Inverse folding.
């Protein structure tokens, strides 16, 4: 079964590569002819990451009950060109964007490496980089773009002197749960650990990686689960953040 699904995924990859040879290719951000990402859209990702947790519902610091926020770094606002590029990268048709976002992820890891050193006081613990869970449909199709991004971020963090391990252990609930009614899904857990995860490996500093943060509900659920297993969730790294109304972070 696993061999079969790998074969199907490979055929799809080859198919989409052939498609990109046959169809005219445009910049994923603005459509400029005959280039994967144009110079201007490339520039949208070449800036220092910004802290954006204060614009989320679930990750901002809260007074009642007293709860510290989770540092979340993002490179771009999730709108316009960056939004179109992320959606194309996650879709099936633009596998040619993978090297671009791998490079963006590496740079993000490099930029966050120093910030992380300041956050982690005392002897530097190993840093465990965990991709946020992908839905089971995406996992079946083996379109694990967030896991690819996490590997790139981990490599960037590693280049700044951190000892880094990247593991893909966070899962959404089983496919069977999607046959339940909406209310049953709401009451079930949003995130679980993959079977055969060694919980002892989680007792260290953790950096979560996701493509986009909006309310922060998924990252908050990951933090809750990981803390129950003794993890110190130090922060999260995302490509883009949905700007809040009248956003001060993204003008
Ligand atoms: Zn462009």
């Amino acid at each position: 079964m696993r061999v079969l699904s790998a074969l199907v995924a490979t055929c799809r990859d080859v198919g989409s590569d052939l498609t990109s040879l046959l169809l005219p290719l445009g910049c994923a951000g603005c459509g400029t002819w005959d280039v994967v990402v144009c110079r201007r859209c490339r520039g949208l990702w070449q800036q220092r990451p910004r802290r954006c947790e204060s614009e989320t519902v679930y990750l901002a610091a809260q007074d009642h009950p007293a709860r510290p926020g989770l540092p979340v770094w993002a490179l771009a606002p999730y709108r316009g060109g960056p939004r179109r590029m992320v959606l194309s990268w996650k879709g099936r048709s633009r596998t040619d964007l993978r090297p671009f976002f791998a490079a963006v992820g590496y740079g993000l890891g490099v930029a966050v490496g120093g910030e992380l050193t300041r956050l982690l006081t005392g002897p530097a613990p190993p840093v465990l980089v965990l991709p946020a869970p992908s839905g089971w449909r995406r996992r079946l199709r083996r379109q694990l773009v967030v896991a690819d991004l996490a590997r790139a971020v981990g490599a960037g963090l590693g280049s700044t002197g951190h000892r880094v391990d990247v593991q893909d252990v966070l899962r959404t609930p089983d496919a069977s749960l999607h046959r339940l009614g909406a209310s049953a899904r709401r009451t079930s857990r949003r995130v679980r650990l993959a079977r055969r995860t060694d919980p002892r490996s989680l007792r260290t500093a953790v950096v979560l990686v996701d493509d986009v943060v909006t309310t922060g509900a998924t990252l908050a659920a990951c933090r809750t689960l990981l803390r129950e297993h003794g993890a110190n969730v130090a922060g999260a790294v995302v490509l883009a953040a949905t700007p809040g109304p009248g956003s001060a972070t993204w003008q």
